[in-house]
Amino acid sequence: MNSSTERSADQEKQSAFKQNLEYLREIPLFQGVDYECLKLLTMLSKQIDLIEGDKVMVQGEDDGCAYLLLNGNLKSSYRLYDRLYQLRDHPPGQFLGGLALLGPAIRLFTVYASEPSSLLRLKRDGFQKVMDQYPGSMVKVAANHAAVLRAWEQDLLNQIEDEEQETENRSLGVSLL
Fold this sequence. Notes:
Number of helices: 4
Number of strands: 8
Helix content: 40-55%
Structural class: alpha+beta
Oligomer: single chain
């Protein structure tokens, strides 16, 4: 390889790194995290390209990863006995599986690509090693997780109010954990 080709490849890698760093900076989970910590997390992240039908998460398994959907579309489903429930679409920009970074997390859903898609994957073991080096960032990540869960549950409560449904039989209260 000649030097101009090597330079071009290096520039491409630097550009991809900068773009991935910006993606991670936008994730609510990582808001306020130390910049050097975020750079290490970016270095540990890997882009994965999927074809339609590829599974990202499998119900009942613990893959120890979190994913940011860069482009394409993912769908989630839930199997109960012999019935499959299609739950929702996940458009680009969604961060999925963040709880798996904190510790063992058996997946409750299967998530798969409904069209060609690209993801940024971060593995638990790398995440935890970085957090060991930046304990203040881990505190921030935990606080961000709590804020995201609370906002998610508030959205569910707002939907109930909007639909004027009874809450008696609803299984809410994740923020009470």
